[in-house]
Amino acid sequence: MTTLSLFSLLEEQVAPEASGLTNEQRKAVERRDGPLFVHAGAGTGKTRVLVERFVRAVLEDEVGVERMLAITFTEKAAAELRTRIRARFVDAGERDHARAVDSAWISTIHGFCSRLLRANALSAGLDPEYRVLAEHEAERIAAHAFDSALEDFLGPPEDARRVELVAAHGPDRPGGPQKVPPRDPRAHRADPRCPRPPNRANGRGNFRQPRPPTQRPQRDDERHLKDCGDRVR
Predict the structure, then answer these.
(1) Is 61 inside any structural domain?
(2) What total of structural domains would you count in the chain?
(3) What residues make up the domain containing 145?
(4) Is there a single domain that holds both residue 80 and residue 114?
(5) CATH number of 25's domain
(6) What per-residue confidence (pLDDT) applies to 104?
(7) C-alpha separations of 144 from 21, 131, 132, 147 in Å
(8) pLDDT digit string (tens) for 121-158?
(9) Is residue 46 predicted with pLDDT exceeding 50?
(10) Cα-based distances in Å from 227 to 216, 217, 232
(11) Burial label, 214 (beta-carbon count in 10 A; 0-12, 13-18, 19+)
(12) Angle 135-154/160-169 helices, nearest 10 degrees?
């Protein structure tokens, strides 16, 4: 694998070509005969290099647009890359290739895998109508799985050691503090080393003893009526 850098060395500073590529960018674009790793920072022209490599592979190497694969980290970056590739084909007078970009394999890794599985759902044993979970849906399922695993780990009420372990390390799961399922209070009396079960009202997993019920203090007028009633009887 060849490694290139888009950072211009001081002793190799050159003016950009007429195509708008620097010397380092031109090397990255023209090197298409094997694996290539491009080392670059922000604002050094990575997207420009990707666009030019894609277009030249189609026009010069006669690779079909449908056979090209471009993966980005975000959907926004994938949309920008698709737009710029389409515009580059239009500038080159290749309108057929520009229209083919709409169905090109330019997406995130999740989008690529979803498209691949959807096209071969039956072979993969999947429902063709499946969909990718939204982020909040995936978080809710992960939280439910965590709660179920925690309940299974705590085991029966007499297993005080596991409750003690959860109390020592905290029951919080990714995404915020959560509640531990209440345990049988007899487990604490059976083993003094075992902390009391958590109070469900306490979402931070702190183990505390519930407060004893308190009697509402009587007002002065209530005490006066009570005294009067005592005298009448």
Answers:
(1) yes
(2) 2
(3) 135-190
(4) yes
(5) 3.40.50.300
(6) 95
(7) 52, 20, 18, 5
(8) 999 999 888 888 888 999 999 999 988 888 888 876 66
(9) yes
(10) 18, 16, 9
(11) exposed
(12) 140
d(CA 58, CA 32): 12
Residue 209 domain-assigned? no
Three-state secondary structure string covering the chain:
CEEEECCCCHHHCCCCCCCCCCHHHHHHHHCCCCCEEEECCCCCCHHHHHHHHHHHHHHCCCCCHHHCEEEECCHHHHHHHHHHHHHHHHHCCCHHHHHHHHHCEEEEHHHHHHHHHHHCCCCCCCCCCCCCCCHHHHHHHHHHHHHHHHHHHHCCCCCHHHHHHHHHHCCCECCECCCCCCCCCHHHHHCCCCCCCCCCCCCCCCCCCCCCCCCCCCCHHHHHHHHHHHHHC
Tokens representing residue 48 in the block:
């420009």
Kindly state the tokens that stand for 53. 């490599």
Is the pLDDT reported for residue 212 higher than 50? yes
The whole-number pLDDT of residue 215 equals 56
Evaluate whether residue 204 is within a structural domain: no
CA distance 146 to 49: 44
Task: State which of 86, 119, 152 marks the end of a domain.
Answer: 119
**Residues 105, 186 within the same domain:** no
